[in-house]
Amino acid sequence: MTSADEAHDRGPMSQLAPVAANSRSRLREGWIGFLTVVRREVQRVLRIWPQTLLPPVITTSLYFVIFGPVLGDRIGEMEGFSYLQYVTPGLIMMAVLTNSYQNVVSSLFGAKFQSHIEEMLVSPMSAHAILLGYAVGGVFRGVAIGAIVAGVSVVFVDLPIAHPLWTILVAVLTSIAFAFGGFINAMVARNFDDVSIVPTFVLTPLTMLGGVFYSVELLSEPWRSVSYANPILYMVNAFRHSLLGSSDLPISVAGGVLALFIVGFYTVAICMLRRGVGIRS
Amino acid sequence: MSDSLPPPALRIRGLRKTYKSGVEALRGIDLTVAQGDFFGLLGPNGAGKSTTIGVVTSLVNRSAGDIEVFGIDAGRDLEGAKRLIGVVPQELNLNQFEQPLQIVAQQAGYYGIPWGEARERAGECLRWMGLWDKRAAMTRSLSGGMKRRLMIARALVHGPRLLILDEPTAGVDIEIRRATWALLEEINAAGTTIILTTHYLEEAEALCRRIAIIDDGVIVQDTDTRSLLAQLTTETFVLDPRDPLERAPDLEGYEARLREDGSFEVDLARTSSVNELFAALDAAGVRVRSMRNKANRLEELFLRLVESKEEAGASAQHDGVAS
Question: Which domains, ranges and CATH numbers included, belong to chain B?
């Protein structure tokens, strides 16, 4: 289409009314900005579902096959549950936390890389609205995948839900903590390598060593004590307690660790966003 | 200034920016842009144009200085100031995987406009820019000119009173450039103050009513376009003779210089007329087939200003060494 052709569908130029600016409308303005980011992030997850929703489901299904019919029967029971029942909460939690993290880090870094993060930076949106908008996007993906994986697990194992509300709460809180973590990672990342370093070299090892596949009680000292320094151990055990009603650690401690991480990551992320770390020169 | 006078669209005082690398990009910028103006900020690459725009739009942290947008102090109420500004950056910064309608409506959402109204405004802006038919296309499939217009649509969706464009026609062909000029004139005529940075001086001359020239982080000239052009004392014309010349013609009152392509050029004082030049050509028996300006007038002035500043700097440095 040429410029002349395009001119045909151009209406007359007039000035659109400027947005209102009193203090009451600012709260509403912030809320609408937040909802806009949430809508965009959720649409992104759904638009690229073969990248965001499908792979974790396939990977986790493979775990179910391996730890169910293939290896599970040979390992035997753990804390009174079949091995597959025992590892299922950990597998769900692993999917929740890695995907919450991955969603925010890839979306925000993508926005930095293509520079369209500037759309938000030039607008009057507050740092809180931006951060929370991204975090809700991460929670949506994490919890959605957690639900799908839980659904798939029913095919392989009889999964009890001892405390349904705790189950949802722990999944959502863990997802929030790791979404904030992903946000911090994306802020400091300068290239694609920086985006994958933390998930590969920090998140995956901590998850694998976080009691997903074994009870921490099986470890000898000093490894048992070392494991207590792993925050993911608390999150996995809190989720196991919610589903199976059994855990290596008290739920209150796990809740405290989660709260600490949420507050800590949120504070760091907000400070970085306000200072413009990695996004403003 | 009287209280009854409206505040300027933009007032910058003592703006400084030093990057972490130690590079001093802005060294005390003072600038005032009146409401409704079409203002040009000119300067060579690396002069500080984009940094100035970046600081005003909060994409770059300032080191010192004050910024007011329509009387709102950006230091005290940054969100209030941002609400009045629309910005079109130099580099394409669109999400290539989203659709134009989605991009523009989202931008309205960031400014607190509810989703239904945001989509209506986005549609209106896309129609203005001739992009309505492309509203559902993937942005990466749009041509370069369409992406530029999409960025303008995105900047206009919240009804900004001040539109800032950083090199909006850089790297686009002449047809798109002319179409963009017409669009900007229309936007300005509708009441939006426009600040434009460019290194196409003919663009500034054609569009801007007021021009500031920035070089090495300082404003070296800030005046209306007509006054700026009035500073030119001579204009150089290139003349194409009907018959080939072996040497530059002797013209009474003028110095002619032969060019490699067989044409010749003559400097004409602004106080004299072209008729006088043609009289001299007739007297010398030179028949001319065509005539044109050697270069853009503003370009000449721009180079002179920048060069004179450099000479002054070198002289001061020399004096400093000597003393």
Answer: 10-223 (3.40.50.300), 231-297 (3.30.70)
